[in-house]
Design goal:
alpha+beta, 117 residues, four-stranded antiparallel sheet
């Protein structure tokens, strides 16, 4: 953390990708892998915030905040996501400056879940 209690992250805006398949089995498999990938990145202390967005005209689907310092590191991490790799989702990445306490969010979230994903 810097003197202001802040640090750099990479903010990922997930949006609808270019793959327009209607193969439900393929889509289900990719999004199951997407959730497994989220869990793995959390365990590796790389992903500290993730969640879906409500329907919107911009086709934004969700966000990630990654605890990495460069766009290149973030690109490597998101390419392990089957929904992104298959182009069902696309991602825009931005450097973001936020509270250095943000990683504590995961610990707190784990304490209040009634049903995990």
């Amino acid at each position: 953390a810097d003197d202001y209690g802040m640090k750099g992250y990479v903010f990922v805006m997930l949006k609808t990708g270019t793959n327009t398949t209607t193969d439900e089995e393929f889509i289900d498999s990719c999004f199951s892998g997407h959730l497994q990938n989220i869990k793995r990145l959390v365990k590796e202390d790389k992903l500290i915030v993730a969640g879906p967005l409500g329907k919107n005209e911009n086709k934004y689907r969700g966000i990630f905040i990654l605890d990495v310092s460069t766009i290149e590191e973030a690109e490597e991490l998101i390419q392990t996501d089957p929904a992104i790799n298959s182009k069902l989702l696309a991602a825009d990445l931005y450097k973001w400056y936020g509270s250095a306490a943000l990683p504590v969010y995961i610990e707190t979230s784990d304490k209040i879940w009634k049903v995990g994903f």
